[in-house]
Amino acid sequence: MTKRTESFRSALVLAAAAVAVGMLVDPAEVVGQAPAPVKGAKAAPGPIPRTKEGKPDMSGFWGGVNPGGNVDIEPAAAKGGGAPKGAAPGGAAPGGGKGGPGGGKGAPPAAAAPAAAPPANAAAAKGKAKGVIIDPVDARVPYTAAARAKSDDIIANRMFLEPELHCFPSGVPHNMWVQFGMQAIQNKDHLVFMWEFMHSRRIIPLDGRPHTLPSSVRQMQGESVGHWEGDTLVVSTMNQTDRTWFDTSGHYAPKDIEVVERFTMLNADQIRYESTVISPAEFTQPMKLSGMMARANANDPGYEQMEFACIEGNKDLEHYTQDKGGKAKYTGPLIQ
After folding, report:
1. CA-CA distances (angstroms) from residue 256 to 52, 151, 243, 277, 288?
2. Which has the higher per-residue pLDDT, 335 or 161?
3. What is the pLDDT of residues 60-84, one digit of tens each?
4. Measured CA distances, 127 to 30, 123, 272 (Å)
5. Rounded CA gap, 298 and 226, in Å?
6. Rounded to whole angstroms, how far apart are CA atoms 228 and 134?
7. Looking at beta carbons, which pairs linking 35-41 to residues 24 or more positions away fall under 8 Å?
8. Cβ(144)–Cβ(282) under 8 Å?
9. Could you report the per-residue pLDDT of 261-310, keeping only the tens digit for each?
10. Residue 266 has what DSSP assignment?
11. CA 117 → CA 31, 112, 277, 298, 313, distances in Å?
12. Residue 186 bridge partners (DSSP)
């Protein structure tokens, strides 16, 4: 398991670094005679694999969208707590910053608005860390005032509702940046995503069919349907429940959201991920997200997903009480 984890993290770190500088090193570009292969070096990715029907084939193991929003989909506020220094959300490699403007109470003030419209990635343009939200330009969930108050109340008083603490599936789009990555299996008719985390599944038909579930039927992962626009797979997801969040920090997903995702393979080892989240009732505008997915087994052909168990209310072994086989002294039932 340690070898698998290190290989997974190595693949994500290398792919994320390549995206950050906008290139992948090609040994043929080195001046003079090509050197012998460096041990552990990552080869340049190959061309887009295709199915026999000619469509991009996303089959294989993939890391989560980077940058993601697993811990907090909004830019980090400049205050104590949160993830340790160097940690990165969404199963991504460490190296992100403290987030862009609009991160809430305590965040650094935003620069004055330019005369022209700001670029989609305004946070990156101002030298701040880029998050998964690219629109609105402040990188915050575009809640209405009432919805923002609801989210703030969850953060202040109701974090016990966090879905993954109860072993619930993460929902869409949150599941695209959960830790440990996932496996994709694709044929002419369907694309299946299978996550190691929670053993969640999404089964996406690719024939362009319409949504069929009535609004009264709700699922944790919603109902997803897909179709191809050239080499880009477009997936629409509706009919989710009101029990999923965009992250694990209290930014809840409204019940009426529709999520439209676009998956575009750039080469054998990279997928550009884009999505638009719409909530007529609780958003003031659509929320647009963007990031990259890297092949998890690019450096390790023997990579495999591991068994995952989620036990609601679980505690680590260090804190198990003596009556449960641990070392801590039992002092009676906990009162919550």
Report:
1. 37, 16, 12, 10, 16
2. 161
3. 999 999 998 889 999 976 333 333 3
4. 31, 7, 22
5. 27
6. 24
7. 40/299
8. yes
9. 999 999 999 999 999 999 999 999 999 999 999 999 887 888 888 888 88
10. E
11. 42, 12, 22, 39, 47
12. 191
Distance CA 138, CA 287 (A): 11
Instruction: Find all residues with CB under 8 Å of 35, minimum gap 6, and list them.
Output: 27
What DSSP letter does each residue of 205-227 carry, written as one string? E-S-PPP-S-TT--BTT-EEEEE
Q: How far apart are CA 58 and CA 198, in angstroms?
A: 21
Strand order in the sheet with 258-267: 133-135, 287-294, 270-278, 258-267, 232-238, 223-229
Kindly state the tokens that stand for 14: 């290398």
Report the Cα–Cα distance between both ends of the chain, in Å, rounded: 35
Cα 230 to Cα 263: distance, rounded to the nearest angstrom: 11
| DSSP state, residue 169 | -
328 Cβ contact list (under 8 Å, min separation 6): 318, 319, 320, 321, 322
* 328, 320 contact by CB (below 8 A): yes
Contact 226, 189 (CB under 8 A): no
Cα distances from 283 to residues 13, 150, 179, 219, 298, in angstroms, run: 34, 13, 27, 21, 39
* Separation between Cα atoms, residue 195 and residue 306, nearest integer Å: 10
Q: If you count them, how many residues does the chain have? A: 336
